[in-house]
Amino acid sequence: MDADLVALSAAVATAALTPSRQRRLLIATAESCTGGWAAQVITHTAGSSAWFERGFVTYSNEAKVDMLGVRAETLEKFGAVSQETAAEMAEGALNNSNALISLAITGIAGPTGGSPGKPVGTVCFAWCRVGETAVAETAVFAGDREAIRRQAVIHALRGLLLRLDAPCKPVIDT
Fold it and tell me: Per residue in 12-56, pLDDT tens?
């Protein structure tokens, strides 16, 4: 794993375990085009079971529906690569885990599969905290399949860091 990804892994660990937190902030991931790469980066740092709860790799639409509860209507109306689908993936990761925060990634890594409206490199992201509505966004990355997937992982984890640093409602572990 390269130095940038190792640094992101360490930063996620530090943010999730900040002493000022009144609870353990467990993370779940829901990934499609990155195939579990974000979960791999998060768990690269030793002791990651203290902040990583589980990861879902839902490459097919059927897996998104079955494992995360993404609505078939959402997939039909907006497609697998959409902010709406990413948001439902992030919410589904929370609903099907013990995590308190999640991230979702769905996109077109290429080299084929793009369209004029959604070219290769289009990736949709969402982040969600328990009790809150998912926040979603879309980015378009350049490069080959590996470069697009790597950029997507970095973007998703940087977005997670922003949300880990945000104030959260205090909850006392039981």
Answer: 999 998 766 555 689 999 999 999 999 999 999 999 999 999 999
Domain range for residue 29?
3-165
- The CA distance from 92 to 56, in Å, is 10
The answer to pTM > 0.90 is yes
Residue with structure tokens 């937190």? 21
In this predicted structure, the answer to whether residue 68 has a pLDDT above a threshold of 70 is: yes
In a domain, 173, yes or no: no
Q: What is the CATH number of the domain that holds 115?
A: 3.90.950.20
Other CB atoms within 10 A of residue 78 CB: 15
Three-class HEC string of the chain? CCHHHHHHHHHHHHHHCCCCCCCCCCEEEEECCCCCHHHHHHCCCCCHHHCEEEEEECCCHHHHHHHHCCCHHHHHHHCCCCHHHHHHHHHHHHHCCCCCEEEEEEECCCCCCCCCCCCCCEEEEEEEECCCCCEEEEEECCCCHHHHHHHHHHHHHHHHHHHHHCCCCCCCCC
User: Average model confidence (pLDDT) for the chain?
Assistant: 93
